[in-house]
Amino acid sequence: RAFERHGFCTFAFDLPHHGERRAHPGPLSARGQYEAVQKGAEDIIQAAQWLRVQGAREVYLVARSLGSIAAAVALGRGAAIERAELLLAGADLPSILEAQGRVPGPRQRAALRAIDPLTYLPRYTGRLHIHCAREDRTIPPHACQAAYEAATRAQERRLIWHPGGHAMPLTAYFNDALAFFTAGLPSTPTPVP
Q1: How far apart are CA 13 and CA 1, in angstroms?
Q2: CA nearest 65: which of 109, 96, 111?
Q3: What would the pLDDT profile of 60-105 be if each residue is shown by its tens digit?
Q4: Structural domain boundaries of the chain?
C-alpha cells in the first residue's frame, strides 16, 4: 500500500509454497525451494505480460529473499520489467548452500544452474537496484554481491548495503525504491490522499 499512496497501481502474489500458496507448515524442502524459484519466475513473467495487456506502459518489481532469486531468473528470461528492486538477493546458489552448511553434490549443482541468477542476470538490460544485508546468514553478502556483479548488461545497476541480517523492513528500502521508480518519469505520480 505504500506505493499505492504515491499513485502506483500494485500487484502482489506469494511464491509457490509460501504464504497463501503454502500447503504444509514447516521448513521448505530443497525440492520445494527449487520449484518456488522455477514456478515463481514463470509467474513473474506472466504477471508482467498480464499487466501489459491491462494497459501498463511500464512494469516495476520489488522482490525479497527467495522472491528476489526468482525475480532475477525472470528478468534474465525476458520478463517485461523496466526496473527491479531486489531485496536480499543472491546468486551462485551452490555457495549460498555451502555457507548454510549444506554441500550440494554434482547433480544438485547442475540442477541449480537452471535457477541460478548467475545464469540469467547477465541477460537483463533494464534498471536494477540490489539491496544486501551485511550480516545476512541466509543469503550471505558474497552471494548478494555476486548477483550485482552478474548484471553486467543492466542499463543501470546499484548495490545498496544495509546493516543487520536477513530482514528488510519497508523503511530500509522504500525511499530508494520510490526515487528509483519515479526517476525520469514524464510526471511524478500524484500521491493518493
Answers
A1: 14
A2: 96
A3: 999 999 899 999 999 999 999 999 999 999 999 999 989 988 888 8
A4: 57-182
For residues 111 and 155, the answer to whether their CB atoms sit within 8 Å is: no
Residue that has been written with the C-alpha cell 521508480 in this structure: 181
- Quick count: other Cβ atoms within 10 Å of Cβ 165? 14
Distance CA 42, CA 40 (A): 5
Half-sphere CA count of 85, side-chain side, radius 13 A: 19
What is the rounded CA–CA span in Å between residue 135 and residue 125? 29
Right CATH for 57-182 from 3.30.1490.20, 3.40.50.1820, 2.60.40.10, 3.40.50.300: 3.40.50.1820
C-alpha cell of 120? 540469467
Whole-model pTM: value is 0.89
How far is residue 82 CA from its own chain's centroid?
Answer: 13
